[in-house]
Write a structure and sequence with these properties.
It comes from Pseudopediastrum boryanum. It is built from 3 helices and no strands. It is mainly alpha-helical and 182 residues long. It has one domain.
Length: 182
């Protein structure tokens, strides 16, 4: 390979092939030419593989980017769904709270009205009880007074009427007789 490179060097620099083989003593030119030749060989053999490798890597990266973009879109969709569910849950919670307040208010009003009704019935029962015991007391007092009067009358009748009581009874009947108008 070194010989073919030397031939290339000679032909490139305007030397005839007929002049023969020679040694190029300019090391700088030889190294550059050798480097160029090595690069050409490397690029020709490795370049296609490197290009294919880079192309595969590019496809992998693009696929990963598309997959990441798709996952981001799915995550955004799930986030939007979660936000919608959160809003729905907030609305339901508010509705339940309002319904609870309404039910509590109704229950309080119901309890108050039942309490007032019970108080009114209790007051009515109290009045009836007081009236009953008043009537009972009046009846007992009436019976007591009547029994006292009756016992005194029996006592007077058993003793007989004396002159003062006889006059009182007669005056009573006379006054009743005079008041009578037919």
């Amino acid at each position: 390979m070194h010989i073919s490179l030397s031939l290339l060097q000679i032909s490139n620099f305007g030397l005839n092939l007929a002049e023969g083989f020679g040694i190029n003593t300019n090391i700088f030119e030889t190294n550059i030419i050798n480097l160029a030749a090595v690069l050409a060989v490397v690029i020709s053999f490795v370049g296609k593989n490197l290009t294919a490798l880079l192309e595969d890597r590019k496809k992998t990266i693009l696929g990963n980017l598309q997959e990441a973009s798709q996952r981001a879109a799915e995550a955004q969709e799930r986030l939007n769904q979660a936000k919608a569910q959160l809003e729905l849950a907030k609305k339901k919670a508010q509705q339940i709270r309002e319904e609870g307040v309404l039910r509590a208010t109704q229950e309080v009003n119901n309890c108050v009205s039942q309490h007032e009704e019970r108080l009114s019935k209790l007051e009515e029962f109290k009045q009836e009880t007081v009236q009953f015991y008043q009537q009972k007391a009046f009846k007992q007092a009436y019976i007591y007074v009547i029994s006292c009067i009756m016992s005194r009358v029996k006592e007077r009748l058993n003793k007989g009427l004396d002159s003062t009581y006889h006059v009182v009874v007669n005056n009573f009947y006379v006054s009743r007789f005079t008041e009578y108008n037919p």
